[in-house]
Protein 1
Amino acid sequence: GAGVSQSPSNKVTEKGKDVELRCDPISGHTALYWYRQSLGQGLEFLIYFQGNSAPDKSGLPSDRFSAERTGGSVSTLTIQRTQQEDSAVYLCASSLNPGRNSPLHFGNGTRLTVT
Amino acid sequence: AQSVSQHNHHVILSEAASLELGCNYSYGGTVNLFWYVQYPGQHLQLLLKYFSGDPLVKGIKGFEAEFIKSKFSFNLRKPSVQWSDTAEYFCAVNVMDTGRRALTFGSGTRLQVQP
């Protein structure tokens, strides 16, 4: 269908609470990526999925962060015990395959604010 | 680990001025290079890409970029900017030798074109 869909678009949460962010990739895209964009910073890589497995999770900043992907489609990024430094825009991207000829298609992101 | 530097954080130009945004990367091996653009309120989208061959690549909307291997650079250019080019521009690199699939992004350059 349309592009990459992320929900919610905005999330405000209190410090210490857990949050779940959702990503619906483009149908048929096997590769899925999570990035984080903080104010004044570039895009920080978090984790990459190929199908349901995550061969590269080197960017997850701490063990409070986890992600899963089911059915080779939807992915959720979970942040436990949120901290103020977790405030950022979380971007999801998908590509047809992880090869170099498949550009990334980004969603609009989830803006997370931890108060 | 590879890194991408965009030295111009905020550029202000008048319409019809020429544009050049700098991008340097740190890895000396085989790389794929990209420029992504984020228009206000929209998601990131691919502007152009370099994989191999002619080091001067042309993208959408009159943009082009030149890969200079000896300088580890991939600068973005446009001869004459328009107000509609106001956006944030991100350079990204994928290092082919490592097998890592995720792109490494620069911190972005915010371009403001004044009418």
Protein 2
Amino acid sequence: GNSVTQMEGPVTLSEEAFLTINCTYTATGYPSLFWYVQYPGEGLQLLLKATKADDKGSNKGFEATYRKETTSFHLEKGSVQVSDSAVYFCALIDDGGSGGSNYKLTFGKGTLLTVNP
Amino acid sequence: KAGVTQTPRYLIKTRGQQVTLSCSPISGHRSVSWYQQTPGQGLQFLFEYFSETQRNKGNFPGRFSGRQFSNSRSEMNVSTLELGDSALYLCASSLGDRPNTGELFFGEGSRLTVL
């Protein structure tokens, strides 16, 4: 089946530091990949996505590149801010070889990021 | 436009009771998915409803059930509550077209505590 593995947290950084959160996946088909973010007390919201190999998703200074050869989709940001403190979830969607009848999002366990001023 | 609304936001139940959670999707969205979020297991998919029909199901026992109404609003029910059912239950809506784009819009969740 499908699975997503992301680096264990928590991750604590100082403001303006470089961020990397690693994410690797296992899928039976050709998945689309996502990063979702959950700010304190809120639901998840889509941060960025990539739908095919070598695609780069980007939003709010965050980037992630779909690497099929390494089955990875690492999240990066060059200079984090205090307001980026949140839980970040890597996710994939794939039909699991069902021919389109069994789409569902599979999430990693989340990585808590804390950015200190 | 209004986002996904979940009610109640917080509730406390005792073992053996049942609970019903409600979700109102974004206007025009026909798919509603439910997820259970716990510190140990992360986000786990419960089920998805589209046009009043369950279209997809996760690996949860039959105590967990749901339904969707003609206006796309959805409810989930957990019967015979166990301590391990304590979690944040998240509802997410989407247009529901196939293939699924994976772009879900989440509510803030219903936090259930079972004593």
